[in-house]
Amino acid sequence: MVRMLERLEALVASPTSAPEDLACALTELGRLLDPELTAPSPQSSLIFARALDLAALRVESDGPALAEFLLSVAKYAYVSGHALKGLAPAQRAVEVIRSLGSPALLRKALTIRGALLADTGNLPVAIEAYAEALEIAVDLRDPVAEAVVCNNLGGALIYAAQYQDAIACLERVETLTEGIEPLQSGAVVEIFETAAEAELQFGLGEDCVYSDVHSGASGTAAAHR
């Protein structure tokens, strides 16, 4: 593993690497780190540390491989409890993807960046990132993506004490996730219950309390999706 990592690092760091070799190296590094593709291993923390160094370099590439690599670093930072370290890779991923003109990938990058920002306490900027991601998801007419973003945005709004806006987001999640089997999970129930509790505690009105929330009408809040 160490030798392979050193070989990949050399390819990424070398200014003379052929574009196709650089793309392959970035893709492989991203695959090793991406929590959606590879289960964590004892080597994951080492790969993450080195990937952070490589992400800080101005790699001479602006293609999809660099974007996906940066997103993998950001996702690993989030799930491993190192959200602060993931902010720079996530921001650069957004910049790279804007230049690529891929709305679906930009939506994903903004969602990941929003999760990292929220986790580090920067709720205003997190909400901005989620709001842009939501606009893209709506434009793409992608109900799964819209539900994921709405779920995360609703959670951020709750923590920002913007309860009425949060409830509107979570009502939208409930509507979007009805009948979508991949999104059936208990993950969003906690957010609905939190919203209902907030309504009662802060006097937003009992008529909106979600007494009908159950595990069959909820969606996942996975930030990395």
Distinctive features:
single chain, 225 residues, mainly alpha, Serine Threonine Protein Phosphatase 5, Tetratricopeptide repeat, 2 domains, 10 helices, 69% helix, elongated
Report on the biggest sheet. none
Q: Please report the total strand number as a whole number.
A: 0
The CATH architecture name of the largest domain reads Alpha Horseshoe
What's the pLDDT, averaged over the residues?
A: 81
Helices and strands: which structural class?
mainly alpha
Q: Stretches where pLDDT falls below 50 for ≥5 residues?
A: 184-192, 203-222
N- to C-terminal separation? Answer: 27 Å
Can you tell me the CATH superfamily of the largest domain? Tetratricopeptide repeat domain
Assembly category: single chain
Examine the coordinates and then state which fold CATH places here, giving the name of the CATH topology of the largest domain: Serine Threonine Protein Phosphatase 5, Tetratricopeptide repeat
Beta-sheet strand percentage? Answer: under 5%
The figure for the number of domains is 2
Give the CA-based shape. Answer: elongated
The helix/strand order is HHHHHHHHHH
With helices defined by DSSP (H or I, 4 residues minimum), what is the helix count? 10
Helix content: 55-70%
